[in-house]
Every structure is written in structure tokens, then in C-alpha cells.
Amino acid sequence: MPQTKFCHDYYLILEISQKADIESIRSNYKRLARLKHPDKNLNNPNATAEFQLIQEAYSTLKDPVSRKQYDDQYKPTNHSHGESSHTGSPKNTTAGNDYEKRSAERHKKLQELNEQLRVQERNLFDSNLHLTTLKRDAHRLGTEIDNIVRKQAAKGTVWGYVTSFFVGKPPQADEQKNELDRERLDKMAALKIKESIIERQHATSERYEKYILSIREEIQSIEFVINREKLAEEQRIKTERARAFWQKFEREFEESRKQRSKQAENQKKSENGRTESKRERQKKHGAGKRKDSAQTGQNQQTGTEASCHHKMWWDRIDCPTLCSHCSTMTSRFAFQCRGCGKKACASCRDSLKKKVRFQESKSYYEYD
Per the record, which residues fall in region Disordered (predicted)? Predict the structure, then answer.
């Protein structure tokens, strides 16, 4: 079976992408069929052509086999966001060139048909004119034959025979009768020939009329195809322009979004850097202040701590605190002696208590 030749972008006609599923195809077809139905567009002379294109596109794309065959042959416009979308792809150029080529061929054929139509209409006019002349000659022969018959009938009567003596002519009945008969027969033969010619001429005129009718039908058919393809081409160009516009808009929007995202990221990095630097400065400054405070407190409490035996209860401090014994910042909690107020971590507290007990036991033995 010969392969079908596709001439239209069915994806553009149904206003869908090349990757559209069957549900999208069906829904767009229903929407466009309601919108473009000829009964709803009585003032649009191209409504029928538009509706037929929509039906043709739907019947092709709804079937997977015919859709694959169409995609392999026609290769609709690529729906990508690349740079070539607004500069015109080779496929779009090819589609436009094919349309122009087909349009030129059809206009040439239309011109030839119009020329043939003019020739045949002239032939029909000449044929009808000749037919009118023949009918007029036949009518004249018929009238002459009727006159001869009336003349023969008048001479055949008694009154005709008697009146022939009053006009001063001798009766020549037989000779006149024969002459009238010959004349009548000659004219009847001529009339018969005329009628035969009229019949043939009438058939010729009918052939011209049928030929003219077939030419006009062919012209109407070509004009319908031209208008339909023109409509499809205008729709294709309109859709391509709209697609190019939106592709450009989306591309520029995406570039702007990336640029804004990059600027926001750089700003965030800059703010994070400033925050980190500030935190480091505050940390160093706080550590220095705590160290100075601890040193000052240590100097102030040196006398008290020196005389304290740390035997009293140590209160727990539930916050990070600088140990006054090992100068280490605890992570969660520390202990404070109730006697001298000394702050220490758990290990230093135990160490101080052991040291005091050891000194007391040493003093006890020395005393003994």
C-alpha cells in the first residue's frame, strides 16, 4: 500500500506538544471541535476547512501506528527551549518552502484551468450562436414549405381553377403542380438536413457545457485546497511565533532567576562570612574578658581560697563556667565551693578535696 503523504503540522493544529499523551490530544480535539464547528462559525467561509483539518489531525494522532508514521515522515517542530527556537529551525523553513512550492503549483494549475474555462466558454458561445442561426434557417424553411402547401391547396380547388381564367393566364395545372412539388420536396430535404445539423450542434453545445462544469468543479476543488492550506500555514506561523515568544520569555525568565539566585547565594555567603567573623571576634573578646575576670577573681579570692579547706558542700552551676583551678571552660556545668566561692570542674573539685585531706593527715602525723 503506498505511504500516506502528510502536508500539515497536526501538533500545531491541535495546539499540543509533540510529547502529548492521548488524553491531551483528546481534550484539545474536543475543545477545538466545539470552537471551530461550522455551525458556530456561519460567517467564516473557512470554517469547514478548519474543522476538517482538526478532524484529520485527531484521526492521525490518536492512533499510535498512524502517529508514528506521521512523526517519521513529517517531523513536527521541536518544542525545545534552545537558541534555534527563535531563529527559525530547518524544519520550519522546510515546511514553509514546501507550502510555497505546493501553493505555486496549485496557482499555476488554477491559472491554466481558468484559461481553459475562458476558451470553452467562448466555444460554447460560438456553438450556441451557430445553433441559433441553424434554428432560424430551419424555421424559415418550415415557413416556406407551409406556404407551398397552402398554395397547392388553393390551386387544387374549383374556385382556384375558375379564377385562373380571370387573371388572363391559361391553365397550366400539371406543370405548376409539378414545380411546386419539386420546390416543396427540395425544401423538405433541406429542412431535414438542417434538423440533423441542429441535433449535432446541440450535442456539441452540451459537451461544451459538461466540460465547462467539470472545469469549474476542479477550480472550486483547487481553490478549496488553496484556502485550506493557506489557513493551515497562517495557523502554523501564528503558533510558531507564539511559541517562539514564550520560549524567549521562559529563557529570559530562567536566566533572570539564575542570576537572582546567584546574587542571593553570594549575598548569603557574604553575610555568613561577616557573621562568622563577628562571632569569632566576640568569642575571642569574651574569652579574654572571662580570663581577665577569672584572673581578677582569683587574685581577689587568693586569700580566701588559701585559708579555705573546701570541706563544705560544693554547689552545682548548670552553665558553662571557667574552672579557676585548671582555667578550662566546662561544657555544661561546674561546682562552686560555699566556703570560698571557688569555681572548679568536677575533677579539679575532687583533686582539691583530696589535697586538703592529705595536708590535714600530714599535719596530724607531724603533730604527733
Answer: 70-105, 256-305
Other CB atoms within 10 Å distance of the CB of residue 14: 23
The residues pairing with 344 across neighbouring beta strands, listed in sequence order, are 335
The H or E element containing residue 343 is strand 343-344
Task: Please identify which residue in the block is written with the cell numbers 518552502.
Answer: 97
134 inside domain: yes
C-beta neighbour count of 4 within 10 angstroms: 10
Q: Do 116 and 41 fall into the same domain?
A: no
d(CA 331, CA 333): 6
pLDDT tens digit sequence for 226-267: 898 889 888 888 888 888 888 888 888 888 888 888 888 888
72-108 per-position pLDDT tens digit: 877 554 443 333 344 445 555 666 678 888 888 888 8
Q: What are phi and psi of 334, to 5 degrees?
A: -150, 180
Q: Which three cell numbers stand for residue 187?
A: 425544401
Q: Single out the residue of 222, 190, 36 nearest to residue 116, CA to CA.
A: 222
Residues 112 and 226 in one domain: yes
Q: What's the CA gap between 46 and 41, in Å, rounded?
A: 9
Are residues 130 and 20 both part of a single domain? no
The Cα 222–Cα 210 span in angstroms is 18
Name the strands in the sheet holding 314-317, side by side, starting at the edge strand that comes first in the sequence: 314-317, 334-337, 343-344
- Residue reference for cell 495546539: 15
Same domain membership, residue 114 and residue 68: no
Residues 241 and 128 in one domain: yes
Angle (CA) 68 55 75, round 5°? 30
Q: Decide which of 238, 257, 276 is a domain's last residue.
A: 257
Cβ density class 281-300: b for 16+ within 10 Å, e for less? eeeeeeeeeeeeebeebbee
The boundaries of the domain holding residue 323 are 314-355
* Continuous segment of H or E residues that includes residue 283: helix 173-307
Q: How far is CA 192 from CA 126, 136, 152, in A?
A: 23, 14, 21
